[in-house]
């Protein structure tokens, strides 16, 4: 039996468990069966092609929160992530460009037929109208990540996107069942971030991130890597601007921007009247009333002359 056939068979066994109620997942026989599946999957020589063709990661990710199977599922997901990263890193640049071009052409020319569209929308046709609209919106946003799903057939891709959209909407609803406003706000937040962060959509489709984990993510976790970096830089600039010693800490940068270098670095605003040196240091003190300017005391570092102005 080939690796592809083995993975498909094991996926079918896991899917039968997933389709059951979660209360039944605690049965010892079911736990043993799932553990056997995960162990056998761990022994498969996994490749990026097998991951994309079978979408086994999405099925295994369902067990990440299971008290007995969670550790094994997380270990497999982490292992397969490394396989995907290595495959992408070793792929020749020319092949990447070719595949990217194909993906762009597929995205621009591919359109679902009426029959296919009907088949997809039937997956959430039993839901109330507002939930149907959320599923449809999530499906459309997940489609934006199609260019990152090279190697999958069109049928498998649409099936994966539809299942992911339904699972995400169900997770949003389950966590905000009694508060319609909270449900709408969470759906709007996730939709916004899926549009901006396509890597998040890819992680959802492949099962690296489960819908339940997505719902509980903070705004920082939902943001893309570029957005997080921009926010960190903005926060650092704001923190630096509040420092009382900002000028001292950034003196070298200020001097470089102003073209101050060489002997000018040792010069000051004051010139000694005795030796004409600019190597002086100064301090300010309030010696008069508060509405008067401060008195400046100057010391020449060359001859020791002192004066005030």
Written overview of the protein:
Helix 8 (129-143) packs parallel to helix 10. The protein is elongated, with a radius of gyration of 31 Å. It is built from 16 helices and three strands. Strand 2 and strand 3 (306-308) form a beta hairpin. It has helices spanning 3-18, 28-42, 48-54, 56-61, 70-90, 93-109, 114-121, 129-143, 154-175, 180-196, 198-206, 211-215, 219-222, 225-241, 246-249, 251-258, and strands at 280-285, 295-300, 306-308. Strands 1-2-3 form a three-stranded antiparallel beta sheet, with no helix packed on it. The chain folds into three domains: 1-90, Transcription Elongation Factor S-II, Chain A (Up-down Bundle); 111-231, no CATH class; 263-308, N-terminal domain of TfIIb (Single Sheet). With 309 residues, the protein is mainly alpha-helical. The model is unreliable at 101-114 (pLDDT under 50). Residues 88-112 are annotated as: Disordered. One of its GO terms (cellular component) is nucleus. It holds the Pfam family TFIIS_M.
Give short descriptive properties of this protein.
N-terminal domain of TfIIb, Transcription Elongation Factor S-II, Chain A, elongated, 16 helices, 5% strand, 309 residues, mainly alpha, 3 strands, 62% helix, single chain
